[in-house]
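Model: You mentioned two targets. I'll fold them one after the other.
Researcher: Yes, keep them separate.
Model: Target one:
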Amino acid sequence: MAVSKRKQEVKPLGNDTKKVKLSKESGKGFSNQKKMRKNLVEDSDDDEGEEEYQGGSDIEMEDVEEAGFKGTAPNQSNAQNNNANGGNTNSNKSRESHAAQKKLANERKFAKPNADVIHRSKKIWERLRRKSHVPLDERKQLTDELFTIVTGRVKELVFKHDASRVIQTAVKYGSSERRQDIAKELKGEYVQLAESAYGKYLVVKLMHYGNTKTREMIIGEFYGHVRRMVKHKEACYVVDDAFREYATPKQKASLIREFYGVEYAIFKDDSKNASLKSLLEENPEKRPLIMKSLFELINQMVEKNMSVLQILHKAMLEYILNVRPETSEAADLIELIKEHLGNIAFSKDGAQVIMRCFAWGSAKDRKVMLKNLKPSIQELYADEHGHMVLLAIFDVVDDTVLVSKTVFPEIQTKLDEGSAATHAIARIPLLYPLLGRETKLMHPQKIELLAEIDTIRAQTSKKDPKIRQQELRKALSPALLKSVATNAADLATTPLGCQFASEVIIFAEGDKAAAAEAIATFAEGEDALENKDLGRMLKNLVQEGFFNNKTQKIQLSDPPVEFYKYLMPKIEPNLAAWATGGNSYLIATLLESERVPESERMKIKKILSGKSEQAAIKSAKQAGNKGTDLISNLLKGKK
């Protein structure tokens, strides 16, 4: 059902026919949640060429008998040999015996309850399920015919694996009214269906294709049974799917509150707030019992290999948000989940759980967790939620040597390819050691999440945050600078690539000559004159810094890059064209930047003071080029 990244094979829950192999190739736990959801919705649909379910269908006995008859080909061959030797009698007896067996099997099959209904509905289903070959008008006719057969008998059919698939197809292709009729007919059976190896697919299909009323009815029947269902090998996936995809905030609150104890499963609370914090504030005397009950259920689910479920991640988050430093609560959770980090770190709630576990953990805990998380790092750094785990690691782990040896090599391959620099998410953990918590790098909400663990870090980490960041920056800088020098062609042609290159050259530590030269080379092409992204990057590199909204000043590189040395030889032959083109602000920056020596400024002014250059500047000003207008004023000594 779900896929994680640990390099081992685990037994899937229940009697699922698909094994779950946990490996790098198979992807991460919750980057594949959409695939997992699709499996629950689509797995039981038989498209053309899809395998049939194995095991005990009385309706498929005829097919089995036919297959068995074909499987006697060697015996038939022997019979032919016997014919040549006078063995006709034995051959005839064999045929008669097989015919008798087949007749008996058919009699037994049609003697069972609803056999005729199942047989007729399956004949229609065989035609209906081939979605690539059925015209819409024919599909509607087949669907209506199928509903005519199964209506009123749905409860009797849904627990048989072949008949259940018929009902699922009816739900998939039926009208909204038809789906609602089936949902009403199954009222009171949804918990049992969710616990059925075959019925669970129908429950998910009804939530997927049904309307709000259908989902409310189904989820409503789960109330009071959640604690049992989340531990069930089949039902746990149905509850998780309902929680993750279909439940309203109020319904999610009701589902998650049952994790807090039996009394919250029996006595329904209509509050939209599932926060454990508010519950503990209202009932402080119940804190030990609630925390114990919550941890025990989390423990039971983890032991049953259910660590991929997002409803479990939410329960873990509520637990870790309310641990007390004077207790062993945080240490208990860390010990419980440290072997399952790859399954937890890719969901929104799961990532926050791992972030806080690193914050609360001891040096030994952090070392073990880093080791266990290592196989997932290549996917974590580019994951919507998982990359936040890496940022938390950068913020709280004092052993920066361990971090640089564990984390950085895992992303080195992607960095060398250049793909990470132009990825909207992957670039964040790469630039975080250089820039820190800057809004130009990440959303303010992510900065707030990181700030929340600062108070925990103050209790568990010893190293000064600035020293930690400096050590990480020093360790990562050589790889970043090498990436810019190697992949300059790709970086200089994309907006994110230009930003990445300028930020690395300005804020990284080490020898920047190769990277600066590689980027400056792209100023020689004619396209560079009008390439806005390239022009903006060159402008930032010339001024060697970015405007800081907090300080209201330009944050300059230290030590200076002296990028003008690499740029001037490339643009000097076309200086007038640059001064009057779309990237004219680059020349204005060269005339204004404090990082450009006076001798270079005078050289630029001398070139642009020529007769033809002045005529071009005047023409560009009249055309409305504001950059050229600024250059004209700077040449006259104005600003």
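Model: Target two:
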Amino acid sequence: MTRTARKTKGPRQKPKRKRMRLVVLFAIPTVVVVGGGMAVAAVLLVRTRGDTPSPPIPEPTVTTVQLPPEPAPRPTEVVDFADGCMSADCHGPMADRPHVHQTFADEACDLCHAPDTGGHIYPQLVTTEDTCTSCHDTGADHRFQHKAMSEEACLACHDPHGSGSPALLVADTTEATCLRCHPRDSGKINHEPYVTDHCGECHDPHGAGNAMLL
């Protein structure tokens, strides 16, 4: 019996697999200066390499955060009203607001504040409510009063010095002021007067004869 030898093509080779590795090149800490404040953002650059062409590297994204300005330092000695509170570096810029309380514009600080006795405190002459009601009718005689008035008095909604709002609100609009305490009400109201004129069209924010301040 004759045996026939089989021809072989050599050792069998495994097919090559294309490998792709993710390589982190470097992270760049970036400092961005915005309006007197600084924000730090890390920009991470990533690319791939291997047997296939690498995709283009995306543009880095930088996020900036506005930091609140540092408060002005208090004077180290007693400052008299006659020296002009608004001429000082710490109070002068407040007069640049779009709407300024008339007593503040007239530099009549002593109508609301007692003289400085040290520490640059200038306490109010009387309570906030009594200070405001000496010139303003706040509707305190109404049967129902706004809770904000009974707890924080006028300062809950108004800035006694100046504001971006003609009513000297703590926010630039009536809606924004109300939503500081009533954020859950904004998404469920589509009443036309509310959409066009906001809360003040139906509600009296100071007080009313109705429990809903209508």
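Researcher: Noted. Anything on target two?
Model: Residues 81-208 form one domain.
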